[in-house]
Write a structure and sequence with these properties.
Two copies of one chain form a homodimer.
Chain A: E1 3-6, H1 14-24, E2 28-32, H2 33-37, H3 43-52, E3 56-63, H4 71-91, E4 95-99, H5 110-127, E5 130-134, H6 145-155, E6 160-165, H7 166-170, E7 187-192, H8 202-208, H9 220-230, E8 236-238, H10 243-247, H11 250-275, H12 281-284, E9 298-305, H13 308-320, E10 324-329, E11 334-339, E12 342-347, H14 353-361, E13 364-371, H15 375-384, E14 389-390, E15 403-405, E16 411-415, H16 424-428, E17 429-431, E18 443-453, H17 458-469, E19 472-473, E20 477-481, E21 484-492, E22 499-505, H18 511-518, E23 524-531, H19 534-543, H20 553-562, H21 567-575, E24 579-582, E25 588-593, E26 602-609, H22 620-644
Parallel strand pairs in A: 1-2, 1-8, 2-3, 3-4, 4-5, 5-6, 6-7, 7-8, 9-12, 13-16, 18-22, 23-26
Antiparallel strand pairs in A: 9-13, 10-11, 10-17, 11-12, 14-15, 15-16, 18-23, 19-21, 20-21, 21-22, 24-25, 25-26
Helix pairs in contact in A: 1-11, 3-4, 4-5, 5-6, 9-11, 11-17
Function (chains A, B): Catalyzes the conversion of 3-dehydroshikimate to protocatechuate (3,4-dihydroxybenzoate), a common intermediate of quinate and shikimate degradation pathways.
EC number (chains A, B): 4.2.1.118
Keywords (chains A, B): Isomerase, Lyase, Metal-binding, Pyruvate
């Protein structure tokens, strides 16, 4: 299905918007009236600009408060709409979006509305255009697509069609299942928007919080499957009112919009196939069909950009955590550390990608290597969604590892090991222990990776992880930091082999925001290692000198009030500075944090018991407050040191 | 009445919060449970910290889901609350806030709730503490103070009192008038919060958008007047959940909180006096009573910090706008320009306040001089609200002009002229024309001044203008800029002698935000000059070479559709790039903008007809888009110039 977007969805002047929309790969564009109004040039100029960019102007919008009016008002409305029809001719588009009336004096009379929409259809026929009537979720009387369709169907005129908008249907918790029963040729236009589930006035919600499909909480594939089943063959068009997008660079926003429609088409295809296993090719053929996301994915290694000093510091920590120095890269200044299935690579190679990353971001996560079922297909899938493939320098006999760039410019390698062939580590590294990694301590592997992001790139990351790896997302939560709020969202694969937590500061004053700024937007915040025995782990690591973040005694008093824990267990938690959470099914989460390294980077140890599937969100505020205290202690020590100099 | 604030209202660790609250002038503090939980120390440590700072801990909060529960649950709740009573003893406070239950399984039975609250009262009596029962606006069954009071009154026990919170009452559009009928000694605690009127879920609204009294839209003086009439003599305590405050420096936030309570007390006194002209001293005596705000205020002059080059550029513009060079300062490098009653002062004095301002902010508004009825009283009032008085260097025979610093550090001079004495201009300047200003053109005076602010200082400015000058505020509006949204709010005096418009970018990408950052937060955006004949004004000024901002032709086509304007009038508007607005009473607003000077500073010409009282908000988006185009044209020219070098 062809992809379109409304100009209101992105930032900039009309010329900047059209250029970004074209570059992103859209075929069509909806011109929003205000964008034309502020444009210093004629509608014909806009037509030429769009044509030069290969963009079809698929719709002009919006036209408001047409139906349900007095006789005198109808005459004025017909006059008003005729002038818009003339403008549409100049603009070179044949479709006008007409919203259901919102005016308080709209007359509540379907028969009258049908008569007046009939007059609209006839005027449209005379002008050679098609009107598309849409039920706004906050319309005065017409609020659902079923009601709008009742009126359009009664008018029964080819120049009056139904317009659908996923937001208006799903924001009211209305079901989309009746869409499939509407003849596709009577649906004149389909707009797509996602949104986070928010408890607020639907108009405000619509005007400020819409987002691209996949970034919010709506079941859009189910909605779009109904549209496909109706036989509709027109464009799917994004109409996104989003305060963040209004302020973001238009090229990146438009690119994400295009990806989001591709991903939606893939998920719609899956929904249709699930529903009717033998669904016809005619239905699913127009939907984007990329190689499937990897069924199984997991961390192969995390690669940090370091210089000599940072390598020394990180290596020192890894050794205290009983990581083994497992190998040295054959041609580069790159070292491999392993503990259980967790592998960390420290890259200090001069004039490399990692070096450039270090110059810009300091100690940072410059690459993640993911084990996938088929690396070539994974790359093909990522590239199909418009993510940039990357290849670096190779030494003799080193493995070509396909990679794409994540939204922060870091690399995501796709690794698959073939039976009988050397592993990636064997190919690229001189291994200390040729029999492969040995269990040396309580860490079993990487449980999850947590990224601190600039607020503006949060939703881009959600889309990246969903599109490239097929991850699912939990609902976003707000975490209170002593200096501001942090928005947090977890993404994970079906088998939980891959878990990522995204964090962004809601305001510019928290440590997350400061460290993101200080390090030019790089995302590493912390790595959580899994263990089967956290008491053993913290005992060993504390003995080895790993500084654990101290948890206030008041936390344990409160824990005791909230959960019925044995005195002995509570004492053990307190003694080891362990945090605790329990889910409704009785699953338990025990975790501990290290103090921070480099002011922003820290490690976590986690033990999951009984199927616990979260990340200890109730404890986040305790951790953030403890880190704030650590920072202010460090600042005080710096001050005192300054004074003593 | 004594002033208190909840720790949740400001940013920082508990130690930082308490220090800021004490420094701001509060007598008391509510300890929020989470702040204690994250604190690395015992409740007794908190008690000592507060005592050392001279702060009384007036309340501990919150205790949730006590009443309307099963027998088994009641026993657990009594156990739970006893532990909190013990903690309160350590903390040294005798008051606990108990919120009406929100749990879905709360039993809807007032008799049961009364029984259980009775048990709570007895437990409190045994522990020697007082419980304060509050109706949350989103309580499961108890949502209004009337309902909560019905239960508390039925229990009829001194250790169970009613807690009031203005947000919970006013967010539901409930009336506060029954508060006066409750015996004051039965009200155990009063919390005060303001909020902007928002159409959203009341819980979300409460958790994120509360603000200090005077910064929102609630009629808080009427609410507080009812509290005073009840005979309540306890503290007024701010409980503000605000995402911005969570991220802002705590000292400045706390200072504004303290001011806001002083202002609320003044307005409450006025409300009581209005209601009962002979209201008893006993009622109004405990309320703050500053010198009255000036009944009349107007612009005496605006003072810009300049260097030689900036002075040349601004003087050049002023001359084209037919300003007259009217005088030279007796002892400083300061020049006076006048046109009608509008006076502009350009200050290039080395090593002065203006010089320091220029070093930091570039060309900027470093001072505003306001004509007031009594300058000494105005200063006393401002100082009473905690704004910093300022005095600069004086030459011989120069007038001492009292001033305070505004939130951006600029000065606000208070000027009053005494009959028979030399005017300020006569005292300080060698005037070119000793007969005073002569009418030289179509400008009549300064209509309004518009400031571009960092988002975080918006509400501080609202409070400053209300407290110091007694201005009223319109509701905030959102203006669409091509690169993001701008929040805007007008403040004005009763006689409209003083009008200010505050603008702040909602996101960090608009020109407002960029220019605020680039110039270190200084606020000048534009000055609007009033005229009685805008057609004459723009004709003269264009002839003199003032570049007016061009308005797209599409704007006029749309204007024609929206308003029935004569073809001739529309043509005249179009020809002169004039914008137009009309209010519901037929009042009209004609205005034009100059292009920008120094990338951020521009001028406006406005003509108000028929009592129009707004600022042309419907045209703001057209202006912002035209300015964005001007900027991108200027950038393109710079690029081309760069290439040609």
């Amino acid at each position: 299905m062809s992809r379109s977007i409304a100009t209101v969805s992105i930032s900039g002047t009309l010329a900047e918007k059209l250029a970004a929309i074209s570059a992103a790969g859209f075929a069509g564009v909806e011109i929003f009236e205000n964008d034309l109004l502020y444009f210093e040039g004629s509608p014909a100029d806009v037509r030429r600009m769009a044509a030069d960019l290969g963009l079809a102007i698929v719709l002009y919008q919006p036209f408001r408060d047409f139906e349900g009016v007095s006789v005198g008002r109808l005459a004025r409305n017909l006059e008003r709409v005729k002038r818009k029809f003339e403008l549409m001719h100049e603009l070179g588009t044949d479709r006008l979006l007409v919203c259901s009336s919102v005016s308080p004096d709209t007359i509540d009379d379907d028969a009258l509305a049908i008569d007046q929409l009939g007059e609209l259809a006839q005027a449209a026929a005379r002008a050679g255009v098609v009107t598309c009537y849409e039920a706004l979720a906050w319309g005065r009387h017409v609020r659902t697509y079923r009601h709008a369709w009742k009126l359009v169907n009664a008018v029964n005129h080819p120049n009056l069609t139904l317009a659908l908008d996923s937001f208006h249907t799903l924001s009211l918790d209305d079901t989309p299942d009746a869409i499939a029963t509407i003849p596709g040729e009577r649906i004149g236009f389909v707009q797509i928007a996602d949104a986070p589930k928010l408890n607020m006035d639907v108009l405000e919600w619509s005007r400020h919080y819409r987002c691209f499909p996949g970034q919010g909480d709506f079941a859009l594939a189910d909605f779009t499957a109904q549209v496909v089943k109706s036989g509709y063959t027109g464009p799917l068009s994004l109409e996104i009112f989003n305060d963040g997008f209004r302020g973001a660079p238009p090229a990146a926003t438009a690119a994400d919009g295009n990806r989001s429609l591709l991903l939606l088409q893939e998920l719609t295809r899956e929904a249709l196939t699930r529903e009717v296993p033998g669904s016809t090719n005619a239905q699913t053929a127009p939907l984007y069909n990329p190689p499937a996301a990897p069924a199984h994915a997991g961390w192969q290694f995390l690669e940090f950009a370091v210089d000599d000093a940072a390598r020394q510091r990180v290596a020192n920590w890894l050794e205290k955590l009983h990581f083994r120095r497992a190998g040295q890269h054959r041609s580069k200044d790159v070292t491999l550390y392993q503990h259980g299935s967790a592998a960390i690579v420290l890259n200090a190679e001069p004039d490399s990608f990692a070096d450039a990353f270090f110059q810009r971001h300091g100690l940072s996560l410059c690459a993640s290597a993911l084990r996938v079922d088929d690396a070539r297909l994974a790359l093909e899938r990522a590239a199909g969604f418009g993510y940039q493939p990357f290849s670096g320098r190779l030494g003799p006999n080193e493995r070509v590892v396909p990679a794409v760039q994540a939204p922060d410019g870091s690399l995501n390698y796709f690794v698959n090991e073939q039976p009988g062939e050397p592993t990636l580590f064997e190919a690229d590294f001189v291994l200390t222990d040729v029999d492969g990694p040995t269990e040396v301590g309580p860490i079993t592997g990487i449980d999850h990776v947590s990224l601190s992001l600039p607020a503006g790139s949060f939703d881009a990351w959600v889309l990246f992880l969903k599109a490239v790896f097929g991850l699912q997302a939990s609902a976003a939560v707000l975490l209170p930091d002593p200096y501001g709020l942090v928005r947090s969202r977890a993404l994970f694969s079906a088998d939980r082999g891959l878990r990522m937590v995204l964090n962004a500061s809601v305001d510019p004053h928290t440590a997350t925001a400061e460290s993101v700024r200080a390090y030019h937007g790089t995302g590493l915040n912390h790595v959580a290692f899994g263990t089967g025995d956290i008491f053993r782990a913290v005992t060993e690591f504390e003995a080895a000198g790993v500084p654990l973040l101290r948890v206030p005694a008041n936390y344990y008093d409160d824990l005791d009030v909230r959960h019925a824990l044995s005195a002995e267990f509570l004492d053990a938690l307190r003694q080891h500075n362990l945090l605790y959470d329990r889910d409704e099914q009785g699953g338990e989460f025990l975790h501990a944090y290290t103090e921070t390294l480099d002011q922003r980077f820290f490690l976590e140890l986690v033990e999951r018991r009984g199927g616990y599937d979260g990340y200890g969100a109730p404890n986040a505020a305790v951790r953030l407050a403890a880190q704030a205290r650590q920072r202010s202690r460090a600042e005080r020590q710096d001050d005192e040191q300054d004074k003593s100099l």
